[in-house]
């Protein structure tokens, strides 16, 4: 057991928990019991692309199943918020996030080597809105994997697209693409839990249609393999979208690591300032508070927030007075 455990449980990929067996929870409980005795400190993460209420069941009682659970509802909800320029559905879901114990937390992400799963939206959005989102993305070049239903109909299962192209329009400028993309990832970095960023995302990758044609499956659209010289050249070229995304996202990650308020165990509140502006507050045991403001719209937003003074860590601008102006797609981390 001790020989294979690091490979099986700490590797980059593992079998999705929900597809192992009908009595998956018993298997996870058994693994947890063994691990706690043989290798204390090892973390079990379950990857279950199912509706939210089924997903969080893998926390168990808080001390007998997974330590972390993939937050599968976050990617499509953030995408929905940016596409609709409306944060209400995202906030309504996030306000109800609870953990069974301090020994558990969320494993947050926006993109992976698979597509953007739609099952985690079911029960959170009406089916009509899910289909509307799918249709809008298809019109912008996304591919869709479908599942067959017992009644002979079919339903969309996942959207195959890079997160960069999912968030933007074909006619978007690179400046707007980058702004939308950084906004979405700032939400990811602000959420309670542990954030993870897919390699294609931090590299600012676009849809790889040639890969889909060559390999013959939709998921190849977000799995492009690069030569290191090609990546290095583009990352060093300040005129490229890849350079802008990589350096700005890396800067936000560095900022996040410098501020303890973002620690997974620290408190959070999430609410809406208006339909297009979300607020996430993170606070630590010392009483220090960091406030994130997120404008998911193409419009300038003037918001009035009393008693919010400090400095925006991202723009390095002091925030004075009660009225704050957010540019289209702007994020502020105010402390």
UniProtKB/TrEMBL annotation:
Keywords: Glycosyltransferase, Transferase
Keyword Transcription among record annotations: no
InterPro entries tied to this protein: GH
Keyword Transferase: yes
E.C. code: 2.4.1.7
GO MF annotations in UniProt: sucrose phosphorylase activity
UniProt-recorded name of the protein: Sucrose phosphorylase
Native organism: Escherichia coli
Gene that this polypeptide is encoded by: gtfA_1
């Amino acid at each position: 057991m001790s020989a294979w455990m690091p490979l099986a449980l700490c590797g980059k990929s593992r079998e999705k928990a929900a597809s192992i067996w009908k009595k998956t929870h018993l298997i996870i409980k058994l693994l947890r019991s063994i691990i706690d005795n043989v290798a204390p400190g090892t973390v079990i993460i379950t990857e279950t692309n199912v509706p939210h209420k089924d997903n969080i069941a893998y926390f168990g009682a808080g001390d007998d199943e997974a330590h972390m659970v993939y937050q599968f509802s976050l990617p499509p909800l953030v995408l929905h918020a940016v596409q609709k320029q409306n944060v209400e559905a995202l906030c309504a879901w996030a306000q109800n996030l609870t953990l069974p114990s301090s020994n558990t937390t969320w494993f947050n992400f926006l993109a992976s080597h698979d597509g953007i799963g739609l099952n985690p939206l079911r029960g959170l959005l009406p089916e009509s809105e899910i289909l509307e989102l799918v249709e809008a993305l298809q019109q912008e070049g996304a591919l869709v994997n479908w599942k067959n239903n017992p009644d002979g109909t079919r339903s969309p299962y996942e959207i195959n697209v890079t997160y960069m192209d999912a968030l933007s329009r074909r006619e978007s400028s690179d400046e707007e693409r980058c702004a939308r993309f950084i906004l979405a990832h700032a939400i990811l970095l602000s959420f309670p839990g542990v954030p993870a960023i897919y390699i294609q995302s931090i590299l600012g990758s676009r849809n790889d249609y040639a890969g889909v044609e060559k390999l013959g499956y939709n998921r190849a659209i977000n799995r492009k393999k690069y030569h290191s010289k090609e990546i290095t050249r583009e990352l060093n070229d300040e005129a490229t979208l890849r350079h802008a995304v990589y350096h700005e996202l890396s800067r936000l990650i560095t900022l996040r690591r410098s501020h303890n308020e973002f620690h997974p165990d620290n408190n959070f509140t999430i609410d809406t300032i208006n339909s297009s502006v979300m607020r996430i507050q993170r606070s630590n045991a010392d009483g220090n508070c960091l406030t994130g403001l997120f404008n998911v719209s193409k419009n300038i937003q003037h918001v009035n927030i009393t008693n919010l003074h400090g400095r925006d860590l991202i723009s390095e601008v002091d925030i004075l007075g009660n009225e704050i102006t957010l540019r289209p797609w702007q994020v502020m981390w105010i402390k």
